[in-house]
Amino acid sequence: MSAVYAFIEAERTTHTVALLCQLLKVARSSFYAWRSGEQARRARQAADDALAHEITVLHIASRHTYGVPRIHAELRRLGHRVNRKRVERVMRERGITGVTRRRRRGLTRPAKRAVPAVDLLGRDFTASELGTRLAGDITFIATDEGWLYLATWLDLATREIVGYSMADHHRASLVVDALVMAADRGRLRPCCIAHSDRGSEYTSDELRRELHRLGLRQSMGRTEACFDNAAAESFFAVLKEEIGTRRWPDRATARAEIFAFIETFYNRRRLRKHPHWGYLAPLEIRQRYEQGHALAA
Fold it and tell me: Domain named Integrase catalytic: which ranges (predicted)?
């Protein structure tokens, strides 16, 4: 109906409104009511265009990965009092969408004779203190030179990647190097739980010796039970969807992109919903914990 009213508005200098309304079978009162609200509609459209610009900037900054929840959270953090349904509508009208995770093919190959550690988490992937619970896993990245393997350790208090390592193999030294990185950063506390699956890299003597040296406790989920290590696997799902590239020309390029994703985006800028503090980046969550300890002291 708006198109009919717009036609009448355009032709009313040539023909009378009464004649146009009669020919188009609309009430004159309805046309005048539409005309009186035109200024308000233009103001709303201008406001939507301005909001769409803000959303586009945030979407680009998120590497084209944020959907409605995180875009809305970013806008609120910037001081915009905007309804989530409005954000959803504007994004839908402009075709702005986040990424959807795909199912990941696992790398885990259980050791045949190794004795697994007890599961100390029981699928409770939360932590009330920094550096007390880690979740580790390995994934592989496709390059034209062959696979690039990535091992990570994730702090369950913040979901921050505190240690990681990349190589052209997935021997035990890969996960040990990632663990040493986390320890060298001073992010681990005595008796911290290091949880993983039962892959041969995690049941190795090399990793167990390093855990003993660092004073950490080892924990493992069950064989072929992906939900027993869901937090670590969730990070890899985020990485592979949000980094965008499916295959790199060489390992060096893949290394650089993964490093940038972890250090400049995921740890420092990517929002996740904390149960008490709302949407924050892992670095901001860590700072909240540290501030809480400083105040308590």
Answer: 112-290
Token digits of residue 122: 């029981």
Q: Which token pair is 151?
A: 């091992």
Which position has the token pair 């993983």? 196
DSSP 229: G
Q: Please report the pLDDT score of residue 297 as a whole number.
A: 47
Q: How far is CA 194 from CA 154, 221, 276, in A?
A: 9, 11, 24
Alpha-carbon distance values, 65 to 68, 91, 237, 293 (Å): 10, 13, 12, 33
d(CA 229, CA 223): 10
Q: Are the C-beta atoms of 87 and 72 separated by less than 8 Å? A: yes
For the chain, percent of residues with pLDDT exceeding 70: 92
The closest alpha carbon to 136, from 236, 69, 8, 32, belongs to 236
pLDDT of residue 147: 93
pTM for the full predicted model: 0.70
